[in-house]
């Protein structure tokens, strides 16, 4: 398989990585770069565990070629906090609501919520449920997850700009 050196911009840092032609973004982020917050669940674009933001839009990294996102701004769960040692208001709300059980779905949920609250700072419950419809929580903690996103919106602290 042909290999190529590419540069990815992740969480405002540049990474030079050698990738195969068909190498997936999830693999590069998780295995090559070592940002293990991006999870690999189904591998077929159905569970949302691998969600990252690419130019501010949620993207499923398990069905995205790494080569295809050169030059884009990629944000993983490691990049949503405003500064080291602090949490994003959505992360804080997830902690307060205990909206985390095994935590496997949590990075994807938070990144999808980030996108939602930037587009729609005051979503209804139905709009929140619609936004996370592509993200599966195998622990079925949806009630707490929806409440956490609603709390983050209600705090007014959240998501005035893209991370
Ligand atoms: S691992 Fe990407 S959608 Fe499931
Ligand atoms: S907390 Fe376990 S999959 Fe959602």
Automatic annotation (TrEMBL):
It holds the Pfam family Fer2_2. GO terms for molecular function: 2 iron, 2 sulfur cluster binding; metal ion binding; oxidoreductase activity. Residues 4-80 form the 2Fe-2S ferredoxin-type domain. The keyword Transport does not apply. Keywords: 2Fe-2S, Iron, Iron-sulfur, Metal-binding, Oxidoreductase. Signal peptide: none annotated. InterPro entries: 2Fe-2S-bd, 2Fe-2S-bd_dom_sf, 2Fe-2S_ferredoxin-like_sf, 2Fe-2S_ferredoxin-type, 2Fe2S_fd_BS, Beta-grasp_dom_sf, Diverse_Oxidoreductases. This is Carbon-monoxide dehydrogenase small subunit. It comes from Desulforhopalus singaporensis.
